[in-house]
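Entry:
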Amino acid sequence: MSILPKKNELGFYEIRLESIGGLGANLAGKMLAEAGVLGLGLNGMNFSSYGSEKKGSPVKSFIRFSDPDVNIRAASPIERPHVVGIFHEALYKTVDVVSGLDSEGIVLVNSTRSYDEVRESVNLEHGTLAIVDALGIAVEEKTKVNTAMLGALFRVCDFLDPEAMKNVIRKTFEKKYPHLVEPNIRTFDRGYNEVAFKTYEASEGAEGKLFVRPVPALGYMTQPMGGVIINPGNSILKDLSGSRQGFLPEYHADKCIHCAACDTVCPDFCFVWEEGQDKKGRPQMFLSGIDYQYCKGCLKCVQACPVEALSEMREDIGYAEEHRVPHKFVLASN
């Protein structure tokens, strides 16, 4: 008798993890598949999709399970998942995270917001929404988001054995990083126990989300005639907000001495300056704020600030947009 709760027409139970580079979704997918194969005797497959970009670019990890008598011969990306795990809320801006989700599918989100707020953000019509504060757990336990998300995923996929996952955690860390074994097991347990669920019932005959394959802005079918690139790569249009891993610098203007130490270490020129006069009437540049569109949350500025005018804060949805001080660009003319 099959222990898988659902299967598609090929006999697979499929999970897709949506994340950004640096949060550990690739490793989480490997460990999840290993626990299903070694712990329960299922057939399993895992692989990931990501580019060559720096940390912060979108990552997808795919996991397929099948009964022992069903071979997995498909190696294509998962387009109709039964479960979607979302490691980073900022992905909503650029990625259709629930594309292709089964009509009775489950969406697990790393968030502290309410069900209705998250549901609106991910555009979930029906199905089960699971929410866990994976980042908060990881910060408190001094571990990574992926272990907390794994704990929540094992609660979501209740046919999997949590003890098998704990054995995988021990196997992964005990040789090179033995001091990380117990913190990661605590993180896993907290993710498992602290995830909460809410189900939105589907109307009769309701179908799942339509899967839409992303089309590159400049590909062989979408590039303008003659190969002219009308939108060159430039700093005015880039948006690094999706690269942040949950934290950003908070600016305290009353403490700032305008020394520019922050600007010196910032790799993306996020700080906005305006010319003014000092107490003696001499011209001087004053820091007016941060353009969060370009901030990837590296927090080098926080470390460099000599007067604590910048501090680390956990990012709340909407904070960056409300407190952003845009750069004023001047376009050159011939």
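The radius of gyration is 23 Å.
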